[in-house]
UniProtKB/TrEMBL annotation:
It catalyses: Hydrolysis of terminal non-reducing beta-D-galactose residues in beta-D-galactosides. One of its GO terms (molecular function) is metal ion binding. Belongs to the glycosyl hydrolase 42 family. This is Beta-galactosidase. It comes from Buchananella hordeovulneris. Residues 396-521, 570-645 form the Beta-galactosidase trimerisation domain. Zn(2+) binds at residues 118, 161, 163.
Length: 708
């Protein structure tokens, strides 16, 4: 579906999470007037209202919600109506303690916060779906209701449960997945450490154990936990589709969140929605926000909703920073540039009590005579000016592969070093962002959710587990003309989670022209030194020993050619070496594969570190280490040159981001000083002015230029 009809022609959604149950009738009436003043056209309603909607089991009180929907509709404000199941009321846990989640240490988590439910609990699902049915029957045809908001931030606080119900559900899930206990033993490699099972009832979740858990069991546990949460969501959606097929459904994701496989989840929403809270104290906050937007847009190849962000400051970090003047609108317009069709906040009015009292609101504690309120109103006007761009596609030039099975496999593996999580994905995204490219995130081993042209440069960071289908897809992308850059630790496990035999990279070895023979991480100091470092003067034998862990970073010598020239341009120096991290691999390289850089230090000196092999209309690269920023930038520059690719607007001043969406060129100045941009002509939508060749962009401001 992809689009939510907010009425009155093309519109960008603007509003926030509204919690009227916290306020009296007079304040609610004032709120609706203020929403109209600010240009708010949609609110999320009832997300945490279960206790108000069903104060006692089976006793529903819905009249207040009906009155509020009438008021909002009369004011021209659409509603994203929540199913209210994200935070069960105390009576549910009190009467049915089996609905409460149990952590890995066997502690049952009580009510008094939020999200205190076991995803596998039949009683929780029964009471949740009963509430959803009542809401759908009562309000599904209400003209204010334009979107259903199912649950809220699944797995934010409780991503797994270890109660007896969950244990039985895990066993049943394994029966459905594998059929026989022999198949489980084969898949998990239980011949190791005498772990063989002879009945499904013997299997337990990987709670605290004497030592390392079985990695294959951990991966299946993560799959199961995600599937159980998705089953909770889908149980509610089935009722909504039955009773209100005309109303689209969504739930709010949380960016690159490892516990939830978003490729799976995105198949079950009509519009992707996201919550994102970049830290204003982090100079890379705009990168993080952009990554969120590009990922959300990529999940279905369609516009998405920014369901939550903060107007200024959150309350939950150890140190909470406010947004600087201009950032509220700057970051919001950035999201529109990268595909958002709605910009919403948590929350409309800052709370007077509760755990989020000091989380900022669109109406802050200071009221309307405040900088935040003025910026909220300015943003409302800006989004009205951008309304013609609603639904327009975003033009991505480059791609990054993300695969949750591979992330879970890497997270679950015991060695060869601690899991880096999504670090390499973020690093490569940072490189693309700072080079001026817009990113499409890509799945592997499944259908790409868009018909847009394939990105010409694609990075595959740490695809630790690689199926045959995924390998074939990567090769096909190169065959079709893309420069495919494979990061280190790709293809270490096959699609069944087993270590690849005959050299890592598996089914990619022949096409890439590389075999990975061995991992050689540079560990620095020994992890558990037997004694202090030896002294050559007295430790005659030990003092003469060289170790593979002596270097804290890698240096790579670049072969003279395009990469060396790109490195000199990137660093504005005569540099001939790339800096990398502590990871290294020993490669065997075929003669027809070009070596672009070699390791420099100690026992790895002279060994290949970076290769490229032309394949079809494109090429396959392999990187045997984790490059620092300058090295990644140089690699991207060379790959882009091979692909004849340029960012939307090359040569921009420091701090300025450029993105094309539909006919519009979005420009965002994240820097602390005014930027001047030449060579632009057209109409600037936010100001209504004509640009005749030169644009002045003040600090923390945006411009959106369309052709005349």
């Amino acid at each position: 579906m992809g689009r939510v009809d907010l009425g009155q022609g093309p519109r960008l959604g603007f509003g926030g999470d509204y919690n009227p149950e916290q306020w009296d009738a007079q304040t609610v009436a004032q709120d609706i007037e203020l929403m109209q003043t600010a240009g708010v056209n949609v609110v999320s309603l009832g997300i945490f209202a279960w206790a108000q909607l069903e104060p006692r089991e089976g006793a529903y009180e819905l009249e207040w919600l009906g009155r509020l929907l009438d008021q909002l509709h009369a004011a021209g404000i659409a509603v994203d109506l929540a199913t209210a199941t994200a935070s069960p009321p105390p009576w549910l846990g009190h009467h049915y303690p089996e609905t409460l989640p149990v952590d890995a240490h066997g502690v049952r988590l009580l009510w008094g916060a939020r999200q205190q439910f076991c995803p596998s609990s039949p009683k929780f699902r029964e009471r949740a779906t009963a509430l959803v049915r009542r809401l759908a029957e009562r309000f599904g045809a209400h003209p204010a209701v334009r979107l259903w908001h199912v649950g809220n931030e699944y797995s934010c606080h409780v991503s797994e449960c270890f109660c007896p119900t969950s244990v039985q559900a895990f066993q049943a899930w394994l029966v459905e997945r594998y059929g026989t206990i022999s198949a489980v033993n084969e898949a998990w490699g239980t011949a190791f450490w005498s772990q063989r099972y002879d009945d499904f009832t013997q299997i337990r979740p990987p709670a605290p154990l004497p030592t390392f858990a079985n990695p294959a069991q951990l991966v299946d546990w993560r799959r199961f936990c995600d599937a159980e949460l998705r089953a909770c969501y889908r149980a509610e959606v089935e009722i909504l589709r039955e009773l209100t097929p005309q109303v689209p459904v969504t739930t709010n994701f949380m960016g690159l969140h490892v516990p939830t496989d978003l490729w799976q989840w995105a198949q079950h929403v009509d519009v992707v929605a996201n919550d994102a809270y970049p830290d204003p104290a982090d100079p890379r906050a705009a990168e993080e926000f952009a990554l969120n937007a590009d990922l959300m847009r990529s999940l279905r190849g369609e516009p998405f909703w920014l369901m939550e962000q903060t107007p200024s400051m959150v309350q939950w970090r150890e140190r909470n920073s406010r947004k600087l003047p201009g950032q509220l609108a700057l970051w919001s317009v950035q999201q529109v540039a990268r595909g958002a069709d709605a910009v919403l906040f948590f929350q409309w009015r800052a709370s007077r009590q509760g755990a989020e009292t000091f989380h900022s609101g669109m109406v802050p504690h200071a009221g309307t005579d405040s900088p935040t309120w003025r910026e909220v109103c300015e943003l409302g006007r800006a989004l009205q000016a951008l309304a013609p761009l609603a639904g327009c596609p975003v033009q991505a030039q480059v791609g990054i592969v993300v695969d949750w099975d591979a992330l879970w496999a890497r997270q679950s593996a015991v060695g060869p070093v601690a899991s880096p999580g999504v670090r390499e994905i973020r690093r490569w995204y940072s490189t693309f962002f700072n080079a001026g490219y817009t990113v499409e995130f890509l799945p592997v081993g499944r259908e790409r959710p868009t018909q847009a042209p394939l990105p010409r440069v694609i990075v595959v960071p740490e695809l630790f587990q690689l199926s045959e289908a995924a390998a074939a897809q990567l090769v096909a992308w190169a065959q079709a003309g893309s420069e495919v850059i494979l990061g280190a630790t790709t293809g270490v496990l096959d699609g069944q989670g087993r270590a690849v035999q005959g050299g890592y990279l598996g089914k990619l070895r022949e096409a890439v022209g590389v075999r990975v023979l061995e991992h050689s991480p540079r560990t620095g100091a020994p992890s558990r030194p037997w004694l202090p470092d030896p002294l050559s003067e007295v430790d005659r034998i030990s003092g003469a020993v060289a170790t593979p862990g002596a270097a804290e970073e890698q240096l790579l010598t670049v072969v003279e050619g395009p990469l060396a020239r790109a490195l000199r341009r990137v660093t504005a120096s005569d540099a001939t070496q790339l800096v990398a991290g502590q990871w290294a691999e020993i490669l065997a390289v075929e003669a027809q594969t070009e070596v672009l850089a070699h390791f420099t230090a100690s026992d790895l000196a002279g060994l290949p570190a970076l290769t490229r092999r032309a394949y079809g209309k494109g090429a396959l690269w392999y990187l045997a280490t984790d490059l620092a920023a300058a090295g990644r930038a140089a690699v991207v520059a060379v790959a882009a040159a091979h692909a004849r690719l340029q960012p939307p607007l090359p040569g921009l001043p420091p701090g300025v981001e450029a993105v094309r969406r539909g006919p519009a060129l979005f420009l965002a100045n994240h820097g602390a000083t005014t930027a001047q941009i030449a060579g632009l002509r057209g109409r600037e939508l936010l100001s209504g002015q004509t640009v005749t060749g030169h644009l002045v962009l003040p600090s923390r401001s945006s411009a959106v230029v369309v052709p005349n």
